[in-house]
Every structure is written in C-alpha cells, then in structure tokens.
Amino acid sequence: MVYAFLIHTLRAPQAQDMGLCRVLYSCVFGAENSPDDPRPHGAERDRLLRKEQILAVARQVESMCRLQQQASGRTPMDLQPQSSDEPVPLHEAPVGAFRLAAGDPFQEVRTVVWLGVLSLGFALVLDAHENLLLAEGTLRLLVRLLLDHLRLLTPSANLLLRADRIEGILARFLPHGQLLFLNDQFVQGLEKEFSAAWPR
Amino acid sequence: MFTAAAEGLLHQARRIQDEELQKFCSRVVKLLQKEELGPDAVDALQRLFLIVSATKYKRKLEKTCVDLLQTTLCAPKCPEQLQLLCTAILRERSPSDDLNLSCDHVQNSRQLSLVASVLLAQGDKKEEVRSVGQRAFRVLESRQPEGPSLRHLLPVVSKVTHLAPHTLHEDQTNLLSKRLVDWLRYASVQQGVPHTSGGFFSAPRARQPGPVTEVDGAVATDFFTVLSTGQHFTEDQWLNVQAFSMLRAWLLHSSPRGPSSPDTDDKSELEGSTLSVLSATSTASHLLPPQERLREKAFEYCQRLIEQSTRRALRKGDSDLQKACLVEAVLLLDVLCRQDPSFLYRTLSCLKALHARLCGDPARVRALLPIAQFFLNHGEAAAVDSEAILQHLFTRIPCELFHSPMLAFEFVCFCRDSLPVFGRNLDILRRSFPNLFKLLAWNSPALTSEFVALLPSLVDSATAVEMLHTLLDLPCLTAALDLQLRNPSCLEASRDPQFQGLLQHLLRATASGTTERLAPLHQLLQPLASLTRVVQCAEAVPTLLQAFFSAVTQFADGALSNQLALLLLERSDSLYQVPQYEAHVHRVLSSQFLVLCARHPSLVVELAKELLEFVGSVSSVHSREAMLTAVVWAVGEYLSVSWDRRCTVEQINRFFEVLEALLFEVTQSRPSATLPKCPPRVITVLMTTLTKLASRSQDLIPRVSLFLSKMRSLAQNPAPSSDRCGEDAGAVCTRAAELLTLLKMPSVAQFVLTPSAEVSEPRYHRDTNTALPLALRTVSRLVEKEAGLLLG
Known about the structure:
The complex is a heterodimer of chains A (200) and B (792). Chain A is of the alpha+beta class.
C-alpha cells in the first residue's frame, strides 16, 4: 500500500542555490505508530515529524532527479510540449526509485517511486516489497490525470488552491493508498465520472 | 510551472498571523452555516487548506470552525467537493488533540471512508484503527441494498488490515474471506449498462449489452478478472478489481498462523506431494473453511491472469497492466505456497512454463525477478534446481538492461532481499559481481547505498582481489558502457586486438579469476572521463571502497592481506583519470593500507622488497603523497623484531638508507614548476621513521642526529630561493628538535618509538612507572638540565 503521495518543486539543475525545495501538496494515508517511545509526545510533535519526513523525501527526490537528468544529459526544458494542448510525453519523463532505510526518515523501511515533469516532482512512498510495476503505472496515471485536470502546463496554472481536485483524483484512483489494477477501460470510466462530477 | 506568483502565495499562507487567521475562520464558519454552500465556501476552504498545510507548525483554528468542518464532512447532502476539502483540512491537521470525530454511528460507507481518512491519520493513540475497522465490518455485515456502497469500504478494510491486523476477530476475517471469494470468482461476465444519470455503475439485472472481452478483443473465455474489459462495468466487477488489488495483503495479514510461519517451509517433500494429490483431485471446494477456499480461488485467479497475459493487448495501458498482473500473480503464488505447501506441485509446472515463455520476451523482463524469488523460496522444498534460472537472470539481464533505472533498482533489491535464501546458490551471485557492478556503474546515485549493504555478502576470499580491481575501475566501466550503448558494434569494429581484449574483460559478465591491467584502456577512454555519469560514479567509489575493506578485513588472512596491499600500491598510480578521482581514492587507499598493516603487521617484513622499491622513487612524493606517507609510516611502525621475528638489522639498514636518500633529495631540490615544494607532512613522517629505525639499529643514531640537526637549521634559516612558509618550517623544526631530544637517550627512544604490544594495555598508562607522558617529561627535563650544564 501507499503510505504517502506528494507533489513538490524541482529546481533546475543549475539553479541550486535559488530558494528551497517546497512541498506543494502531500497526503498521508494512515499513520506510523510510535509505540516504543516512552515519552508522552504531543500531537503537535508528531505532526511536525511527519511534515519533516515528507520534506526529507521531497529533497531526496529532487536530488535524485537532478542527478539522473545531469547524467543523461537532458535539460528540464526537453519535456516542454510545443503547445499546451499536446499531451506531455510522459514516457520520456525521468523516473526512478530508491529505498529508505528504517529510521531514515520513516520508522520502517520504505521505497519511493518518483517521476519528474518540468518543475514538479511527484512521488509515492510505498511500503517495502510492493509491486513496483503497479506503483510506477499508478504514479504515471496520477501524473497524467493531474496534468490534464489541473491544466498544470499552462503558464498561469496553480495547484496550491486546487486541493479539492487533487483529493478527488486520489479518492478515485488511489483510495486510502490502495494501488488498483485498473485496465484502460476502467480508467476511462472513472475519469468520465470524475469529469462529470467536477466540471473544469 | 511553479511560478513566482505561486511562490508568493505559499509565502503569504505561511506568514499569515493568528489574528488574521481567526478572522478568516469566522468567515469560513459563516459561509459553512449557510443553507446553500456555493463557490464562496469552496474557495474559502481551499484557502484554509493551503494555510493549514503550508507550514509544518500547528495552526490554531477556533473550535467552532473545527466542529463545523466535522459536521459538514458528515452532512449527507453536502457536495463532494466540500466534503473532500473538509476531510483534507482535518487530515492535514492530524494528529490533533482537538478532534472529536468518531465513526461510531456512521452507516454510510462513503461517509465512513471520509471519516476514516481523518481518523487513521491520528496515529492510533485512542485505538482509532480498531474502531474504524470494527465499524467497517459492521457496515459490511449489515444488509445493504445493492449500490455503490461497498466500493468505498474495501480500501478502508485493506488499510485497517495493514495497520492493525490483530484487531479483527476470526468471524470477521471469515466473513470477508467469503465475500472476497464471491467477488473474485463469481463476478458478472456481462458488461454493464451505462447509467442514465451519467454515473458509473448499473444494476447487473438491466438489459445485457454483451459479454466482457479480453484485452485482445476476443470474447472472455472464463471468469472476470482485472484483465477483462468492456464499455461499462457493473458494481460486482468493480469489487472484483478492488478485491484482487487487496488480496495479497489480506492473505498475508489475515492468516491465523502469521505471514510466513517457519513450519510451512520445513514441510517435507513427501508430505507436500501427498497433500497435492488430494488437492489436485478435490474440486468440492465449497466444503473447505473460508481461508482455504479463498486460497483456492486466489490460485485459480492467478492461473487465469497468467493465461490472460499471453494475449496481445490492443492498448498500451492494458499491456502495462498485464506486466503488473504477472508480477502480482507470481507474488501471490509465492504467498499461497508459503501458507499451504499443497499448492507447490501445481504451481511449479505453471511457473516453469511461464519462465520459459518470458525468457524470450525482453519487454517482460521485470517479471523474471519474482519468479526467481519464488524458486529461491521454494526450490529446496520442491527439490527443484533453481540454478539454471538464476544463471540466466544474472548473466543475461544486467548486461542488456543496465540502463533502465527501475529494473536496476529492482534487481539490486532482489539480490539484497534474497540473501537469506540463496543457500548454495550464493556462489552464482558472487561470481556475477562484474554484471552487478554494471548496474551500479550506470545508476550510481540511486544504488550506492544498496551496494554498500550488499558488498559484505558479495565478497569472499576467492574474488576479493578481482573485485578490488573492478571497484577501482568502476568509472572506466561507466565510460565503456556509455560507449557500448551509443555504439553497440564498437567491440567488433575496433581493429586493435589489445583494445578489444581489454574492453571484453572490462565488460565481462562473470568473475574470470584473472586480472588485467587496463592502463591502455584508461588512455583510450580518456575523452569520456568528463561525462557527468562517469563523474557521478567516481564520486561513489570511495564510499564503496570503504565498504569493501570493512567487509574484507573481517576474513582476510595474511596471504590475502599481502595481495591486497600490493594491489593498493600498484593501482595507486594506475587509475582512470577522472577529475578529483585520484585524490579521493588515494585518501581511502592509504588509510586502508594502514588498516591492513595494523591487522597483519608482518606484512611490512614480508613485502619489504616491494615497499623498498615503492619508497625509492622520488616521483611518488608528488604523485602519490598520501600512499607514500602511509607506507613510510607503516615501515617506521612495523619494521621491527617485536612485530615479526624475521626482521633483520640488514633490512632496517637498507630501508634507512633509501629513506635517508629520499629525504635528502626532497629537501635539497629546489621547487620548480614541475616539481612543487615537498609537503611538510612527508618530511616529518620521513624524519620520524628514520628516527624509529635508528632507535632499533643504534649504529644509525649518529647519522640520524646529524641529519636532524641539518634539517632543523634548514628549517630555521630557509634558503632565499625556497618559499617554505613560516608555519610549515615551524612544524618541521619542532619535530626535528623533538626527535633529536629523544635520540639523546637511546633506550628511552626505543621505548617511545618502538613500544611493545603491551602499550595498548591501560595499565601502561595508569601505572606511574610505565606511563609514556611521564617518561617524556623526564627525558626533557634531564636533557634541559644537561644543556644547562653545558652552557654553564
């Protein structure tokens, strides 16, 4: 199952010192228990920890993506489509995976699958031993849906105030972090239902 | 895409003050209390979500606001948009102490799903997971009319099972297992009818538009699965998809004996085959208890998926799904066989056929990994030889597909996770290290930490030397792979047989047992040394070398240590010239050389000849300063009878001469453009080593004292042409003075400079008669007194 889904900024490889990596949206499905810690910790501290864990993942994804892009000699602008109506060639978008050891930063061992599109990074934080093919497919699907329904490629796009749509997409295609085996027709059907319920 | 305007918005949301936030909350409360909840409410909630989620610190919201959010969430007539936003805001604030949301009276499964996503994020301090689980089962058990109700429920159940499997009672587990059987095996095989209101679901008894199809367009031949398609779907078909999606986790967590109890693998082969005869003939599965029946149906589902994956899908999305289904089917079969070994007999033939089919299909390579995992897990029990499968996996896949980051990652994870079950096949893994290193060379940032964990199991005394060479040549391997990728025929096209041979060795698939000196190849591939990928790999090598050495030093005996030490010396000036690579590698190699010497001090005596050669060349001073310093220090430390009885006075004298000559050369020669100034560390270590040797062969003391005085005066009065800076000169001077002082009392010098092994005992330092600082202070005072007497 998926533990968390996040969207964050990806800065261009050259501009490393401009600003910080920002998490634009994150959704945690369920929570990690901390039963062994004897100290009574407030809810605030738990939330703080959770936010920092997500930020740590975002930073690592950003650096992995940057390293991969640099190694393959691609610039982020390579993925820019000619017009905003064309679909982004997602199969060429950089994608990768890495493992997080127990305690660093999550309690348990987790795997992160990520995908980068222009200046946005998308990541799924999975439990260990998940079906990575399914996770990768689901992530691509989510990114495609988000790019389409939030029109993220237009210059004035802004996903910060569109959390409702993101939630709507996640509720259908990744309910409670459950990865679903959806064939093409199912996806189409669900998408139609989503478009009907949430007109653009 | 992320514009300055967006950055500004984020900044604003983080900076909003408490007062302003409270005003905004009142506005939200007013908007939510209206009869008609319109776009204003949506807009306000979107902003509130941003404010709450933008900062990692807690935002104080008024109680009325939070309560109203909770009420709106549960309101049945509320539009989905608002419900989702309320849920999201409450979830973003979690864990939170001011939440009084409960699922106790929730009847509607959709509402339960929303409430659950907030409650499950609280962290289970008040047993929220249990209460959500119990409520979910209550809804499941109650007689609900047909409709889209259950589709919201299953993911909740799946999550609860994942988080707290022990909270479910046996009858609840049985209930769900029964329902899962229905959904998995007996879903409708007719397509759904489009709902008139534009929704997604329809009642299965409406007018039938036709049967579902396979992914290649043919009419479905058997029961409905996730690979069955149609224009519209029915509710139970949707539940089929969800049921399969959660099946593996459910089987693992709901099994009464636990996920993989140790007995199942130990069951004897005989017992397994007896049981299999029974299960192969028994089709009266409705007589089985629910868990067993679920397993049986799951098995049938997997077999059907494997059959369905042979079809050529018409759409790319379906083709990708087929691959994911194959992986899932194999993983499921693995779980089933672990829980009930009677499945083993039927599974083996099926998987062997699948493996044969996949070997010839490059697009489905990733599915080979779970198959190999299966055979490693169950090979012993089934007396099947997994060797052939592993051979194919390790020798073919990495060569051809090192450039795919996801495959490389999965491959390495497979190696790491399977280490406990490799058994006598561990040899195949070890001998395939050259192929595994290709994955590492190409994808170093993502895989370095995985390999650091894997290395201790990869290296053994037979392959250590070859592996060290390969590690040192890793950036060169990256360059060669890049060349091969861009120009696949470079191996045959080159007319130079030496180049061909070396390249072939570098790109070999398995450990050859031989080593080749790749220096000519380094030169030929020099233009590629500045490639970013090569540089990234070069940056990873020092970490890998450290991991290699910490593994090797655990088991290396004297002979192997000698070999490795010689290797370090030899390779230190034969490295692929990537910027900064040599400097970093030298640092690691020199410190590891000292570690080797510390573990096997006789190394110095046994390799005396080679070490003499090494320290004799002046060029080492500038090109291999770190190595030279380490070697000289090691000589000073370990070339003595107390470490190895075979050490002769002759050896000591010979080293002395060579080192003295070296020191003379480096201090007398004028620094020039080609020969920079000698670093003071080299000078001091040479002086110290010479003194140590002299303390062991005391005839040398006068020579050394003379030399040291000269050094001291040279340092105090540097020649005008030399640009020795004050600090360096000071250090040299001080050291020379210390050493001279020590030599004035030869027995003390011996005690200080050639301590016996007992010096590492704490007693040596606590006992006032033997403590070193005391001895030094005494010596200094005596010498000063002597000097004072001399001066009158």
